[in-house]
Amino acid sequence: MKRLFKSAVPAVLFALGGCAPGLTPSAGVEPAFSFPVTDNNTPYSRCLAQLGNVQGNNLPVFAVGEVADKTGQFQATGNGTSTALTQGVSEMVMSALYKTRKARLVERYDLRIPLAQAKMAEQGLTGPESVLRKGGIRGSDFVVVGALSELNYNITSGGARLSVGGIGGGARSVVINVGLDLRVVNSKTFEVAYVTSLQKQIYGFEVEANVFRFFGTQLVEFDAGGIRNEPLQLGVRSVVEMGTYQIMTDFLGLPGSAECQLVKADFNKDFLTKGEAK
Question: What is the pTM (predicted TM-score) of this model?
């Protein structure tokens, strides 16, 4: 009897699979599609685009080296752990430079490249346009390198919750920040010609309402609410684009606009004075 049952099961499953409606469509399954593809800009992208209107065609040649995540921050996921911040900051810097339309880009995504470039120059492989036409490699004027250097959680957080008779609600907010350090290296002398250090605070807010009721011995909970957080990686791209804007204006001398100036927030300006007072 057991043997007959075992042999019958595959046959039944095969028959059910062949008869199940919707499992063998002739043209495939229509995929779900929600939001359209958009450009990936920040409020500072407009500042970068404005630089493209500046007159001048003698564009500097930039290479972007490693801009690494050195925060050492990880977060738990369903499959283990992953880095909390994007690992594509170098690519963000390349995109930001390209948005200015005032820089030529050459591929140098490696800190060993300046040494290799010096070697190529000794061999006559880098040089003027006449050399490039013979198969040489264009040299860069500057290399941009750096790191994501800070990720600070709970700079400030707060909230409140009230529950009466099993019915309640609450709200909470949190502020974190990310920090970026970029430096511009002269490709010919390897002198560090410019450095910028920026940070951006990121705000999140949550509102929720909870309803609790006992039915017999079971506790039933109903949650309703909303969360609105500024994307963490958008904050990273924002400091990258502001740092690039500083390189083009403060370092290269392109004219900037008043609306794109760096916001000065010296929270510690009185710290040393207070220390002396003690």
Answer: 0.72
